[in-house]
Specification:
five-stranded antiparallel β-sheet, RNA strand-exchange activity, two-stranded antiparallel sheet, single chain, 5 helices, 7 strands, SH3 type barrels, ProQ/FinO_sf, cytoplasm
Length: 209
């Protein structure tokens, strides 16, 4: 009897996608940009698969498309691919610029984190001074200038009546809002194409202006 146990760990779901769609999801080495709207294709292809849920698939797909390995592949001349690895058109410059900005931001954060965790070198002992008639004045080291605070972006909760097609918005996904464009509004369901190429369906309460 086939096991119906659901996969809940994101790494396990990614491993399942690598195995099931090896021409689309690349486990090692250089990846390929994914087709816009691939999540819908993935959900339909796995609709009868009891191992994964749409929620977990969305989390795994977001982890895959926000990795450094994936963001580096979003570059000029690269072709998007579908679940079977078939070409689906070249990348738009807007998506390339957004991916490179996300990559730089992520790398800068990682660099700052490594610097904060690095052990500080031990202070060297100053050599003994030769006695002089007058006491030598020691200059106090200048205090470092305070770091400028990061700009605070004040988002506004969107109302359904405020939203229109082709409007740029921010979608609440995790800790950081993700930018995208509204592609369709169906009653209370708003379809948003994120700048990473992923298309999702959310309610107005998840959209920020």
């Amino acid at each position: 009897m086939e096991s119906t146990e659901k996969l809940t760990d994101t790494n396990a779901i990614l491993a399942y996608l690598y195995e099931t769609f090896p021409l689309c999801f690349i486990a090692e080495g250089e990846t390929k940009p994914l087709k816009i709207g691939l999540f819908q294709d993935l959900a339909e292809r796995l609709a009868d698969d009891s191992k994964v849920s749409k929620t977990q698939l969305r989390v795994a797909l977001r982890r895959y498309t926000s990795s450094w390995r994936y963001l580096k592949c979003v570059k000029a001349g690269a072709q998007r691919v579908n679940l079977d690895g078939e070409p689906c058109g070249e990348l738009e410059q807007e998506h390339i610029d957004h991916a490179q900005a996300m990559l730089k931001e992520s790398q800068d954060k990682a660099k700052a984190k490594r610097a904060a965790l690095a052990p500080k070198p031990a202070a060297k002992k100053a050599p003994k001074k030769v006695a002089v008639p007058q006491r030598a004045k020691t200059e106090r080291p200048a205090k470092p200038a305070p770091k400028a605070a990061a700009p605070v972006v004040n988002y506004v909760q969107a109302q359904l009546t405020d939203l229109t097609k082709k409007q740029r918005v921010n979608v609440k996904l995790g800790m950081t809002p993700v930018a995208g464009v509204i592609t369709d509004i169906n009653k209370e369901d708003i379809h948003v194409q994120l700048d990473s190429g992923l298309t999702i369906k959310v309610r107005a309460e998840h959209i920020l202006l």
